[in-house]
Design a protein that fits this description.
282 residues; alpha+beta; Trna Endonuclease, Chain: A, domain 1; 2 domains; four-stranded mixed β-sheet; 8 helices; 17% strand
Length: 282
């Protein structure tokens, strides 16, 4: 996970913590607590309620008897949470500053993704990939046409995908010379779905370029699915349906599938994906 995505996750966590503390503070007394030692031993502390006189602006104190310990505890909690909130707001400001100035994409990566000429000269050559695999990869295939306008993130191969996480997956496959199809139709029992990525399994026979992928190819292909909104109930519902369909026809993690997950507080982890990829291609 790169620094930018870690900062995004931290921003989300801080926003949730700050909101939670602010909500709790509305439930506590508005005054603050002052504690003075009144004798020998820890039991001799004296509690005072501190407030500001609205007319004079002067600070005033009021003794809190031991019989009102719950009230004193509430004031102590307010003092503690107020300090905690101040610290979290400082951290939030620092994270926001980082996100404001941190480049989402380096100029070098931008050059590679936007210039086929530089890409050809600087990236690993694809010439040692078999012609049959390249034919399969590059042959026109049925794609997912849903919201094509959302495909705005460029990849090293020169295509457009829907998210930065998908681009990171595509770029990893490309750098490792693993051919793939993005958003390619897969027919399972008559139902068509569109996995994020499909790659030939190592050692499997190379499929004819025009071959329509179905459940019969369960031993020939690797499915890669990135599930990027796992904190969205509607998205999770679709994930359950799609996963059930995969499992019904024999597509399962550790056999012929890689699944990655993401929420607002837990961004895509590229190192996890590469470890999963090593399981199949190392």
């Amino acid at each position: 996970m790169d620094l930018y995505r870690k900062a995004l996750a931290e921003k989300q966590n801080l926003e949730e913590e700050i909101a939670s503390i602010r909500k709790r503070l509305t439930m506590l007394p508005s005054k603050s607590l002052v504690i003075h030692k009144g004798g020998v031993g820890n039991s001799c502390f004296k509690w005072f309620e501190r407030s500001t006189n609205p007319e004079t602006g002067k600070t005033q104190r009021k003794y809190i008897p031991r019989s009102q310990k719950d009230y004193a505890s509430a004031l102590a909690e307010r003092t503690f949470l107020s300090l905690q909130l101040r610290e979290l707001v400082k951290r939030q400001s620092a994270v926001n500053s980082l996100l404001l100035h941190y480049p989402v994409e380096s100029e070098a990566d931008h050059l590679l993704k936007r210039s086929p000429g530089f890409r050809e000269l600087l990236l690993p050559s694809q010439t040692d990939i078999s012609a049959a695999l390249l034919d399969w990869q590059n042959y026109p295939y049925e794609i997912n046409t849903y919201k094509l306008e959302n495909k705005i993130v460029p990849t090293l191969r020169g295509e457009q995908v829907r998210s930065k996480a998908e681009a990171m997956i595509a770029d990893t496959l490309y750098r490792r010379k693993i051919v793939y199809r993005h958003d390619c139709a897969l027919y399972l029992g008559g139902t068509v779905i569109y996995p994020d990525f499909i790659a030939p399994l190592p050692g499997a026979p190379v499929l004819p370029p025009s071959h329509q992928l179905t459940e019969k190819d369960v031993n020939n292909i690797l499915i890669i699915e990135h599930n990027g909104k796992m904190d969205d109930p509607k998205y999770v519902s679709r994930f359950r349906y799609k996963s059930g369909l995969y499992y019904e026809f024999g597509f399962m993690p550790s056999i012929n599938m890689i699944m990655t997950f993401e929420t607002k507080s837990h961004p895509f982890d590229l190192s996890y994906f590469t470890r999963e990829l090593d399981y199949y291609f190392n």
